[in-house]
Amino acid sequence: MKTLIANLIYFLLPIAAIGQDNYDIANIPSALKSRAVATVRNDKTVVDVKSPEQVIETVTRAITVYNKNGDYYAALPIHYNKSNEIKSIKGAIYNEMGILQKKIASKDFKDLSAVDNSTMFADSRMKLYVPDYHSYPYTIEYQYEVKHKQNLIIPSWTPEVSNNVSIEKSSYQFITPIGTEFRIESKNYKGAIKEEKTDKTVSKIWSTEQIPAKKEESYSPNPNLKRTSVLIVPKNFVYYGKEGNFSDWKEYGDWFTTKLLSKKEDLTEASKQKFISLTKNASSDREKAKILYDYLQKNTRYISIQIGIGGLEPFPASEVDRLGYGDCKALVNYMRSMLSAVDIPSYYCMVEAGKRKENFHKTFANVQDGNHAILCVPFKNDTTWLECTSQNLPFGFLSNFTDDRDVIACTENGGVIMHTPKYSNSTNLQLRNADLTLADDGSIKGVLNTKFYGTQYENHMEILLANNNEKTKLLAEYYNIDNINFDQVKYAEHKQEKPFIEENLTIFIKNYAVKNGNKMLIQPNIFNTQSSISENKNRTEDIFIERGFIDIDSISITLPDNIVKNITPEQKIIEKPFGKYEFKSEIKGNKLLTYRKLELFEGNYPASNYEDFFQFHREVSSSDKGRYNLGIL
Amino acid sequence: MRHFLTLFLIFYFCPTIFGQNFDFGRISISDFSPTPLDSNADAIVLKEFGQSAVFVDDYDHRVKLMHEYHVLIRINNKEGFKKANFEIPSYKRGSYIRDHLDELKAVTYNLENGQINRTELENKKVFKENYSAYLDLNKFTLPNIKEGSIIEVSYRTLEQDLFNFKTWVFQDDIPKLKSQCIAIIPASFTYNVVLRGPYKLDDQKKGEVLKEYLFLDGIRMDCSKLTYTMSNIPAFIEEDFMTSPKNFKSAIYYELESIFYPSTGVKKTFSKTWKDVDTELMNEKTFGGQLKKTDLFKTTLSTLLSPNDSKLVKANKIYDYIKKQIKWNNYLGKYAESGIEKALEKRTGNIGDINLALVTALQAADLDAYPIILSTRRNGTPNSLFPVLSDFDYVIACVDIDGTKYKLDASNTYLPFGSLPLQCLNERGRIIYSKKSSDWFPLASEEISEQYYTLIGVLNDQGQLKGTLTISSQGNKALLKRQHIAKFNSLEEYWEKLDEEMPNVSLTNAKIEHLNEVDQVLNETFDITLDVNKQEGSTILSFAPNVIDRISYNPFKIQDRTYPVDMGFKSKLQYTIQLEIPEQYDVTDKPQNVSLALPESAARYKYMTQLNDNKLEVLGSLSFNKPIFTVDEYFSLKELYSRIIQQQKLDIRLTTKK
Question: Could you give the CA distance from residue B476 to residue A114 in angstroms, rounded to a whole number?
């Protein structure tokens, strides 16, 4: 009888909740409507840890959508896999006045695979609801409950979803039995944490409200740095049936190494012998590692297969050896096993990969950080990093996918936070020399030699790897010059210490100069012209330059005899805290020589500098397009 | 129809065996050496074989289709590695009707030290992904792939759907040395077979008769075996400004026409003549069935329309009503997905729901309205020899008002009465008049996509230009602009963005006219201020007169064109600039007047400057007077753009009077 009442209450509660909220659009403060495509009216997440293998996540979320662009945020995908179970889902749609239009039942959700196209296998599915309601504004409300059968990954709280979505109210409640230990990392949370106790449980409640939408600004710092978040990790956990505990990165690394990595270095004796003999003539460990990395690149490729517990565990080295492929974890483990075979120690590292630099939490050990694995080889005074999923990157070259960020390395002393190498302003160099000849019909031909260093290296990998047909097509897009023809295309990779890609082009541009009466108009700098950036009169965010670079273009144009070789020489230098620009041009003999150098310096600059930053680009852009009107004899 | 019968006759007199599958695992060292087709290929198909046969499954006695597929691919470089990844779909219809994949074999061959080493795909490395309620994906990748590896894959699939006689695509994104497909069809089945694309078959279609090949419907039945082979097929390379690659790729298409059941003597026909299709469509609940529901609109129309309305006014009102009433759910289709009644109630539906509702409502108002089924540009052009219903993926309404036929699509809020979106402009559709009659209907748009820029202003002696800029857009340009503006939360945000994107120009006092009156010209006006380039201490002022949306890049980049350039619409772009220049300046340099045209004025560019006292007038216009340009015209188009770019680089220079 007692349980029956409890059940009744349990079922009644959500219904009452629906009745309580009033989704009339008129109730939304106007500050929240400005620049917003949608407003989160109320987002209430309750995470109730009943036991390590029973974590109940209950979510009630209501979102008002103002126009078509907000539909994206009204869709609800709930991901699931072997470790969790969707217990209930339902929803409702309300019109502008907050009057119920229709109810959404569990059967209205589509059950789909959540495996992306490039993945061969992953244990990932979702229930998806995409509203087909098109009378704006409308409000959609969802209620769902998910049972997690593990407590290592606890649903975290990040109320702000996007700059163009405002938040009226969002809260997060975390309930645990009295006496269980958890570590909590809350970022940018300014409110008070409310605590509630019953005789059996403790709960903490975080809440935030009235966050307006923001304008999207270019060159902004990572928005996550300012956003509120709460991340919780238990002391003792159960994950896919495996028990464990860690309270810091050191212990995390120990757990990872012993439980997930230890049995994975299982190369056959024959394979080990092969690697020993491959490297027997190498003079140093570095040399050996290079040979093995080359072997890795020639004999394996990246295939995404997320097997093993919750996508954390690599598949064994012997399997990569046999099949010639693996995902990032498997390939890193394979490389590590090859190095072990020749007695070179290395560290399996986890990293948050992506063009946007994201750091691991420095002191807060958790498994939610990271989406990729790389390998660190700690040579004496020469820590080398290897990206094991690429068949092309030079030895020791990480690229802008994993550069300059905190990662966790699994070392003999447990987990250690390490920092990957940074590509400095001057490393990201693009060096171009052009030797061209202008004909009296206005066409120009000649040779263009460009070297791409640092992160500019990978910008050109796509062209480097493309077949000849495709190369010409890509080059035409890249240079985007009217009627440019590539008569000869040569690419070379120089994979030494400071690796670079060298591009050698023989070009012909039919309508290069514009003839107008007895004048010929030419623009000497055509291969690298800066475009201007958006103006922004009320800049709010800092200016953030994630990676600096230097571009140098030296262009020599031999002029035809019938041209008057007389121009006002130009020399321009603009120096700013965030960058420097130099432009020179003059005629020497029968040659028009142009030198252009643009530098942008990595860093954070106050928002008040934006006008200056904008003017800098504007001046560079206009100077880049500088033209000469040359007289024809 | 007659065409096809002749083919059958030929088969009876050709009893020799033609195509057959090649042996699995017979690889020679020479297969590893490059061929002339290899030069630009990341990978190449050395041999490809496919066979589709109607058969009776002994297990459940159902008639099914069996597809066999066998391919040999050489992977030349790392970019070609992706060809070693396979994804074979298995369709599911209901709980027991499922496609079935079996007999999968896959091997990688590597030439190492003069020896061919083979690595087989392991069974447990084939992953079945439950993609959705209707589809499973069988995914696998071959082991030990290196540059130069050859892979061999063969499998078969069993399918329940006899209509789905697989289209055989000869041409792919990598070249093929040889591709062969065979169809084995019982004598009692008739399929329509169509070959598309520019390449020729090695031999004309070859057929033979397989005597008493199949036990079907109580009797032993002959089958015909049709073999199609093509060799040395280059890779298909997609170009800009083209309709569906389907229209150009070499492929063989099948459509089931009829089945004859000897036991009962009944012949069940599917689609064969347009008359049959018309009847089928009109009897179909989700098509013709919807058109009967005129009662649904009786009450609405009585309030919506007034008796004095002309036919055109009535049609317009109904068009607007449907546009407002049913929002598009982003699904195509010639059939009504939820039915127009439900769509009206839910206020959302697919293309079929919306435009069949439109036809029905127009008919309810006693207007002459009919559905036109069509194939969208991405879907390819419909077969013109005989009806292939599955070619059509869209329906629009046609209303005839005193002899003028208006084509209507109510799925897009921004589309004016009588115009079609680009995706519908695909040669021709079929207008369905009744159960007994239908006809081809040209879809090419007569509409011109126009944009006019007018700048009237004053340039002062400080080098500041102040004026009023008007941008008028019509046709597709207006549609695109309205859609673009809709992406912003407010007009203010749109104007802010517009202003910010033009660093040298400041826009104020923005106004817009007819944003929601979609059948009218969309007019935008701005007060505009810009600083022109000053040299030598303001003694020289120079500026390009068309201050915004200048043409500075050539959309035609590649050297040679293989397929026609299809822009969808005729178009016109025009600049009119009237500037008062300061008294103390003279115009010392200005671009020469030009007039360029393609033969028969298919495209034309004009540029003219004129000075009257201190009034400078610039007139520029670019028009494309037809929507589709042939491959032969490509070079001229590219050159035209090149000349425009050159022209637009030129400045007008003013110098202080001496």
Answer: 37
Q: Which domain holds residue B207?
A: 2-20+40-269
Asked if A414 contacts A249 with a C-beta cutoff of 8 angstroms, the reply is yes
Residue B35 included in any domain: no
Q: Which of A161-170, A505-514, B264-273, B584-593 has the lowest mean pLDDT?
A: B264-273
- Name the residue with higher pLDDT: B532 or A525: A525
DSSP letters for A335-382: HHHHHHHTT---EEEEE--SSS--PPPSS---SSS-SEEEEEEEETTE
Looking at the complex, does the CB of residue A106 fall below 8 Å from at least one CB of chain B? no
A297 lies in a domain? yes
Domain final residue pick, B412, B442, B472: B442
> With a CB-CB cutoff of 8 Å, which residues 291-310 of chain B face chain A?
none
Q: How far is B74 from chain A (nearest CA, A)?
A: 15
Across the interface, whether the CB atoms of B553 and A480 are under 8 A apart is answered yes
Is residue A13 located within the same domain as residue A97?
Answer: yes
The answer to whether the Cβ–Cβ distance between B643 and A511 falls below 8 Å is yes
Is A256 in the same domain as A237?
no
Domain containing residue B68: CATH number:
2.60.40.3140
Comparing CB atoms, the residue among B146, B554, B650 nearest residue A514 is B650
| pLDDT reported for residue B420 | 93
Chain A residues touching B41 at Cβ < 8 A: 467
Number of domains in chain A: 3
All residues at 6 or more sequence positions from B465 whose CB lies less than 8 Å from its CB, including other chains:
B457, B458, B459, B528, B529, B530, B531, B532, B543, B547, B579
Range of the domain at A553: 429-631
Q: Which two tokens stand for residue A474?
A: 């890509």
Measured CA distances, A251 to A152, A244, A257, A378, B197 (Å): 14, 10, 10, 20, 64
Residue B126 has which token pair?
A: 């084939």
- CA distance, residue B330 to nearest chain A CA (Å): 9
Domain limit, last residue, from A419, A449, A484: A419
Q: What is the pLDDT of residue B3?
A: 34
The answer to whether residues A237 and A287 belong to one domain is no
- Give Cα separations from A194 to A57, A160, A183, A203, B474 (angstroms): 19, 20, 17, 8, 59
DSSP symbols for A593-605: EEEEEEEE--EEE
Residues A275 and A361 in one domain: yes
Query: Each residue of A199-210: pLDDT tens digit?
Result: 999 999 999 999
Shortest Cα distance, chain A CAs vs residue B121, angstroms: 9
**ipTM, 2 dp:** 0.85
What CA–CA distance (Å, rounded) separates A456 from B624? 40
Chain A residues closer than 8 Å to B146 by CB: 298-299, 324
Whole-number pLDDT of residue B4: 34
Q: What is the CATH number of the domain that holds B485?
A: 2.60.120.1130
Query: Do B79 and B169 belong together in one domain?
Result: yes
Query: Does B10 map to a domain?
Result: yes
According to DSSP H, which parts of A27-69 are helical? 30-33
pLDDT along chain B (658 residues), means of 10: 32 44 91 89 95 81 86 95 93 71 94 94 90 88 95 90 78 95 86 83 77 77 88 90 85 82 80 83 94 93 92 96 90 92 90 96 95 92 81 95 95 92 91 94 88 94 91 94 91 90 88 93 95 79 82 88 90 94 88 91 94 91 94 94 89 85
Q: CA dist A520 to A302, A560, A628, A632, Å?
A: 53, 11, 8, 7
Predicted pLDDT of residue A149: 95
Same domain as B455, residue B558: yes
Residue B174 is predicted with a pLDDT of: 95
Is-contact B376 B332, C-beta < 8 A?
A: yes
Answer whether 0.95 is exceeded by the pTM.
no
- The residue from A386, A419, A452 where one domain ends is A419
Among candidate residues B388, B409, B442, the one where a domain is terminated = B442
